[in-house]
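haha ok so turns out i had the wrong file open the whole time. this is the CORRECT one, sorry everyone. sequence first:
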Amino acid sequence: MPVGEDDRLTNRNMNASGRGANVNLTKAGIHRALADNQQSAMREAISHNRKLTPSSSRISPSGENDGKGLPSGRKNVFKSLVGVVMERNREYKALQRHVADSDVSTERGKAVFWGTDDRDKDIGAKNTAAAYAKANDKKTLEQTPGGRGLDNYGGGWNYQAERFKYRAKEGQETEPTSKLWEDISERFAQQSSGDVDKVFGVSKDNPWLANPKYKETAIWEKRERSMIEAQGQKINNFYQGSPQLTPHQKRQDSAQNSWKDTGGFKGLPAAPSTLRDTKPKEPNS
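then structure:
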């Protein structure tokens, strides 16, 4: 199948049968499966130092003399790796479309924002905000259809961070997964109306909130708060100890010990010496 033809086919299939469904997440899942299938074939080829068959690779060999004389096994490993990256890029772009188009709306006065866990006390802002929102008939970003879809994709932030880290460029301020979440968070803020609530997992006097790094890295400071203030909305801040937040919820463990299902490059078996010099650099696309 010519490069790019799968996207047109996917679009036709989604338009025909996917109306009303979350089309962009479905597309992302299709490209994820294609990328993972190719990566599995590539790992097997590297482990066994043998040629990939044409059926194992979505990018068909165009001839025995392709690859400027590379032996066929090395040539097909290279082609399969390129195929992995191409499908991973298409997956990421589908997630970008989801971020731009999905429903993150809330009713007036019912948007709840959150941030900053207290690791010492094992208090999580996300879970505390979710419990608060549910009890008060409000919504966090992750409780909207768009936010829930991104939050559940593949396994959440940790999965996405590992899967797309190859796209990060040297000197780039925001890594790829953070960019997805910053963009959808800004849309959540932009579409909010009336008073909004902000839930912190830490106390008001926590030194981290006064740290310049906090203002540089927190999505609330970088994208959400300024948008809300520009729209003239009132912000109700709730910190650890606020009676409205009782009981506080435990934070989600941000450590991920197994990368088995991420499809990331981590854990790729060491290539035999005959293949090591042919592994291309991970692209900056």
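The radius of gyration is 22 Å.
again sry for the mixup
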